[in-house]
Amino acid sequence: MAADVPSSAPPPPTHRGAPRRSAQFERAHLVGIGGAGMSGIARILLARGKQVSGSDAKPSRAVDALRMQGARIAVGQAAENLDLLDGGPTAVVVSTAIKETNPELAEARRRGLTVLHRSAALAELMAGYRVACVAGTHGKTSTTSMLTVALQQCRLDPSFAIGGDLNESGANAHQGTGELFVAEADESDGSFLAFSPWVAVVTNVEADHLDHHGTVEAYVSVFDQFLKRIEPGGLLVAGVDDPGAAALADRAEAAGIRVRRYGRSTSDVRLLSHRPDDGGGVARISLDGKEIELRVAVPGEHMASNAIGALLAGLELGAPLSGLLEGIATFGGVRRRFEFKGRSAGVRVYDDYAHHPSEVDSQLRAVRPTLGNGRLVVVFQPHLYSRTRLFADRFGAALALADEVVVLDVFGAREEPEPGVTGALIASAVPLPEARVHYEPSFERVPALVTGLVDEGDLVLTMGAGDVTMLGPEILAELDRR
């Protein structure tokens, strides 16, 4: 095992290592409590002994789990849900997706209750901790998760809030006993500007979420504002293989912020090589002039890059190098990040959250070395009409890395349909023979279509941020019947 590398960082600010008591959270009501961000806040509040109620549009695994922990949850949203707790809530927590016309938010306004955005509530939960935030257009969930698991391996028991469920624990949040708090920082609506990290990791900065930010310049600008949230003396960890993050690192350094860079180019931690190994990968890295082997249990060079970002953050937080390397090597992934769903008729089925062209490209490149003699069949569901319209050609180019492509219709999420914007835009942009690209707007027909395309040894990958994740079990069931 490599020797531990001492940190050259100045001593971090003094933190109490315990949550700050906040009367406004004694009885909290969360609108959309089953969502990735909201459910994490609910878990931490319950662990701190607070009373929690909430509502969601439909039942889910997250809702069931929170009920078992003691939350009172209604399915469906109505003003009377604010009375699920005796005495009513002392605070109501909402996300950007909750409109002012929502009956529960409208009732909270009418009663004059404290209403907090999800990010403000999470920032309040971080008070009293030394905080590490992971931001970026892609890779932030995996990087946050790797950092969390690595710190757990070092027995530091951090509190954490992540946008996905860790495979190790099945949880997206935890109230730890240590002085550290690790959080995924969401730039999609600028909500990460509520946080004040000691360590900020930025994996990359590539145009996205223009439905909210409007322009590429505005999207980049919000990362510059995020730099100003780093605590005095704190650190930016930047993935400089990405031009946007490299430029951000330069601007941060010019502003007097400490910066550590990682990537294949000249940097503080340099990725020298990467090779697939036993379903994961092995990276050789140069850390402060010393060559070190970094094992990652999930495939792809992009995952090795995420691991280096997590490693640098962990060192800054005072964790030993040896423990961090061991923790990263044991990291088993995150739900919906190349998640194995099952095998039937000799066909493996996986599910992945990739919903931006760069994410699709990186994941498909990572999968190809695992195929052997089999073929890669991708079932892709576009997410958001604006993203489909803006990036159709780039999605097409990325999907061409597959052998067969099935494109579903757009999962609109928070957007209204746009005339002429359908999954067909992306299907027509895939530069493969027409017989290998299939536009199928009917969700119900996809399992039969896919089973007709595959043979023993093939791999099926469902991709997208919408309900495409439901198709994996259905494809497996159809394969069983076949």
Helix content: 25-40%
Total number of beta strands = 21
Q: Count of DSSP helices?
A: 15
Please, what is the average pLDDT? Answer: 88
CATH superfamily of the largest domain: Mur-like, catalytic domain
Judging by the overall fold, what is the CATH architecture of the largest domain? 3-Layer(aba) Sandwich
Whole-number tally of structural domains: 3
- Which stretches are poorly predicted, pLDDT < 50 over at least 5 residues? 5-11
Q: Please state the CA-atom Rg, rounded to the nearest Å.
A: 22 Å
What is the highest CATH level, the class of the largest domain? Answer: Alpha Beta
Structural class: alpha/beta
> How far from one another are the termini?
49 Å
Any idea of the CATH topology of the largest domain?
UDP-N-acetylmuramoyl-L-alanine:D-glutamate ligase
Please give the largest β-sheet: 10 strands, mixed
Strand content: 15-25%
Across the major sheet, the strand order is 8-7-9-6-10-11-12-13-14-15
Describe the global form: globular
What are the defining features of this structure?
single chain; 482 residues; alpha/beta; Rossmann fold; UDP-N-acetylmuramoyl-L-alanine:D-glutamate ligase; Protein-Tyrosine Phosphatase, Chain A; 3 domains; 10-stranded mixed beta sheet; 6-stranded mixed beta sheet
Produce the secondary structure layout.
Blueprint: E1 27-31, H1 36-47, E2 51-56, H2 61-69, E3 72-75, E4 91-94, H3 103-111, E5 114-117, H4 118-126, E6 130-135, H5 140-153, E7 159-161, E8 173-174, E9 180-184, E10 199-202, H6 210-213, H7 216-227, E11 235-239, H8 243-254, E12 258-263, E13 269-277, E14 280-287, E15 290-296, H9 301-316, H10 321-330, E16 339-344, E17 347-352, H11 357-367, E18 376-380, H12 385-399, E19 404-407, H13 423-427, E20 437-439, H14 446-453, E21 459-463, H15 471-481
Parallel strand pairs: 1-2, 1-4, 2-3, 4-5, 6-9, 6-10, 7-9, 10-11, 11-12, 12-13, 17-21, 18-19, 18-21, 19-20
Antiparallel strand pairs: 7-8, 13-14, 14-15, 16-17
